[in-house]
């Protein structure tokens, strides 16, 4: 911002004068550009290495589900098979639910998207609307 004018040897010279600007009213935060990799962002957060999330379904959780279904004795091979079937089921439901959210031009999958996805697969779910 040029704010001072002087005349030297019949020519006009503009002098740049430093002025104080209130950063709050100027719409800036006063922290530089920010953004990814441009500094002033603090320490980098370490991410955990991705592992298969179906392994989070523990052996005891599968055993509890089987007990609820009336199963008395469980083979050792059942646990991996159950995880595989669960993955397949969830992939199908989530694929349909995401399709409903994308069709509605939303980035968030709602409970209703899941209800509609389950309905489409012939598994009616009550208690979550719709």
TrEMBL record:
Pfam families: CENP-T_C (PF15511). GO terms for cellular component: nucleosome; nucleus. It is found in: Chromosome; Nucleus. The keyword Nucleus applies. InterPro entries: CENP-T/H4_C, Histone-fold, Histone_H4. Residues 71-123 form the CENP-T/Histone H4 histone fold domain. Core component of nucleosome. Nucleosomes wrap and compact DNA into chromatin, limiting DNA accessibility to the cellular machineries which require DNA as a template. Histones thereby play a central role in transcription regulation, DNA repair, DNA replication and chromosomal stability. DNA accessibility is regulated via a complex set of post-translational modifications of histones, also called histone code, and nucleosome remodeling. The nucleosome is a histone octamer containing two molecules each of H2A, H2B, H3 and H4 assembled in one H3-H4 heterotetramer and two H2A-H2B heterodimers. The octamer wraps approximately 147 bp of DNA. Keywords: Chromosome, DNA-binding, Nucleosome core, Nucleus. One of its GO terms (molecular function) is protein heterodimerization activity. SMART domains: H4 (SM00417). This is Histone H4. Belongs to the histone H4 family. Its main location: nucleus.
């Amino acid at each position: 911002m040029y704010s001072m004018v002087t005349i030297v040897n019949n020519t006009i010279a503009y002098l740049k004068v430093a002025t104080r600007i209130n950063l709050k009213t100027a719409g800036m935060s006063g922290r530089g550009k920010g953004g990814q990799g441009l500094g002033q962002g603090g320490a980098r957060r370490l991410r955990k290495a991705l592992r298969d999330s179906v392994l989070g379904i523990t052996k005891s959780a599968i055993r509890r589900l089987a007990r609820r279904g009336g199963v008395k004795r469980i083979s050792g091979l059942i646990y991996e098979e159950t995880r595989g079937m669960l993955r397949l089921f969830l992939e199908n439901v989530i694929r349909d639910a995401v399709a409903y959210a994308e069709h509605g031009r939303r980035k968030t999958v709602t409970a209703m998207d899941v209800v509609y996805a389950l309905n489409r697969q012939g598994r009616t779910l009550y208690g979550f609307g719709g």
